[in-house]
Automatic annotation (TrEMBL):
Gene3D superfamilies: NADH Oxidase. PANTHER family: FATTY ACID REPRESSION MUTANT PROTEIN 2-RELATED. Its main location: cytoplasm. Keywords: Cytoplasm, Oxidoreductase. This is Nitroreductase domain-containing protein. The keyword Cytoplasm applies. It comes from Porphyromonas cangingivalis.
Length: 197
């Protein structure tokens, strides 16, 4: 049921490196999301890379090294290391989400009247894909979270992922076996967020 799936997905910040569903099922999920989630003008500006094993570990090492060089080892160990190691690197895989800017540029050239909208729509389409993958991983029994360690070592991450240098890294979704049930967060009352006329 969609309502149950929506309600059960939360951010998981404690992960174990275990395939709670087969890796092939996760690949199938990601492919299905790419084949079904809508995009403006059916433009399909999203690409995903599934990192597992050494590639997953190497990705979080790149992020860790970048954070250490920015924050210094001491501040990193005090503030951030536990999260990187126990919530992200400790998972079984990471989904990388990329945007292909040439798709948006092509749409802007073809439909100048909507030029200002296309970059916004590309971001919205990222969100649709990210939510769908997140919910799908949750339904398979994984815990996951949405991360944005971007703008630090994007070139290295793209080289690791083997993708075109022109793609733009949008988000990372580390996942694995959840260590605990995640609590739902407080939401605004519907009286503030929803109007029926
Ligand atoms: C667009 C977007 C960006 C987010 N960025 C981050 C992030 O960089 N790091 C993080 O830990 N969580 C991030 N989150 C997770 C939200 O904080 C979280 O989904 C929200 O507080 C609701 O909690 P829940 O996921 O447990 O239901 C992001 C969520 C969204 C939708």
């Amino acid at each position: 049921m969609l309502k149950d799936a929506l309600a059960h997905r939360h951010s998981h910040y404690g992960l174990r490196p275990e395939w709670v569903a087969p890796r092939e099922t996760v690949e199938d999920l990601i492919g299905h999301v790419l084949q079904t989630v809508p995009s403006a003008f059916n433009s399909q500006p999203v690409r995903m890379v599934l990192l597992t094993g050494e590639a997953h570990t190497a990705h979080w090492k790149l992020v860790e090294d970048a954070l250490i060089s920015i924050m210094g080892q001491e501040a990193y160990e005090a503030n951030t290391a536990a999260k990187i190691r126990q919530a992200f690197a400790s998972g079984i895989g990471t989904v990388l989400f990329f945007d292909v800017p040439s798709v948006t540029e092509g749409l802007q050239a073809s439909f100048p009247a909507y030029a200002a909208n296309f970059p916004l729509w590309a971001q919205q389409v990222q969100g649709s894909h990210q939510h769908a993958v997140w919910m799908g991983l949750d339904m398979l029994g994984f815990g996951a979270s949405l991360q944005h360690y971007i703008g630090m070592v994007d070139s290295d991450i793209k080289a690791l992922a083997g993708v075109d240098a022109s793609w733009v890294l949008s988000a990372q979704m580390p996942f694995g076996a959840p260590l605990a049930e995640a609590e739902g967060k407080e939401k605004l009352p519907l009286s503030e967020t929803f109007i029926v006329k």
